[in-house]
Design goal:
The C terminus is likely disordered. By secondary structure, this protein is mainly α. It is built from nine helices and no strands. It has one domain.
Length: about 240
């Protein structure tokens, strides 16, 4: 397949995908997962589909559980990232893993753990040693790089898991947004669309889950109020007797 034919094919693919729009105002993903995957299988070259799957294995939201071993995760990243052909996707993976490293450090410290030992495999990127050396500082000495770190620390200190996820999702979205640049109708544009779609899908499901949680809380409060009201009436009746 010639570069011209490939270019036309990816123009067609991107033109067939609905715009994602700003994540913060989205109520649902503009295309569902099944339809998106079908479009990719139909129009992506096999090697490019494999490349997207590889980067997604370390950055896609459902595939990076917070309880996974930091050591295993970093070792996997060190194998996957150098094998990526796209410089843009290598940068995306690098940035996302640096974000994950900061969150891992905040969680470790919140749990009362000491700084990782020198040489321990626990984080990824240029700030690993600095974080370790500034372990007792609220922002690990990297607050000028990750401006969201203190709000994230506050959420962790309050055990506010949903608030923390919101902060991390926003930070990850901004990282991907910065890389779009001149990528409009090429393979990188498709890959960045998929990664941003994953974040938007998680964001909208988070919003729905938060609404459901608020509804459940209101129901519980209503039941408590009703129970208290019944007890009060019974007490008054007994006292009157």
């Amino acid at each position: 397949m010639s570069r011209l034919t490939l270019g036309i094919q990816y123009v067609q693919l991107m033109a067939s995908l609905p715009a994602l729009g700003p994540m913060l105002v989205a109520r649902k993903a503009p295309i569902n997962r099944v339809r998106l995957q079908a479009r990719l299988r139909q129009l992506l070259r096999p090697e490019h589909l494999i490349e997207i799957q590889a980067v997604a294995s370390i950055v896609a939201w459902p595939q990076q559980p917070l309880l996974a071993s930091d050591t295993d995760f970093v070792r996997k990243a060190r194998m996957v990232i150098p094998a990526l052909r796209s410089e843009t996707l290598r940068r995306l993976a690098h940035d996302r893993l640096e974000l994950r490293t900061v969150i891992a450090a905040l969680r470790r410290r919140h749990a009362g753990q000491d700084a990782p030992a020198d040489g321990e495999v626990w984080g990824y990127g240029r700030n690993v040693d600095r974080i370790r050396k500034h372990w007792r500082e609220p922002d690990f000495g990297v607050g000028h790089v990750f401006k969201w770190i203190l709000p994230a620390k506050e959420k962790i200190d309050r055990d506010d898991a949903s608030g923390l996820e919101r902060i991390v999702l926003e930070a990850a979205w901004r990282q991907a947004d910065r890389l779009i640049g001149s990528h409009d109708f090429d393979f990188e544009a498709v890959a960045l669309y998929v990664i941003r779609w994953d974040l938007l899908d998680r964001w909208t499901r988070y919003d729905a889950e938060a609404a459901a949680a608020r509804f459940d809380a209101l129901v519980i409060e209503a039941l408590k109020a009703a129970s208290t009201s019944r007890m009060t009436t019974a007490d008054l009746t007994e006292a009157a007797a």
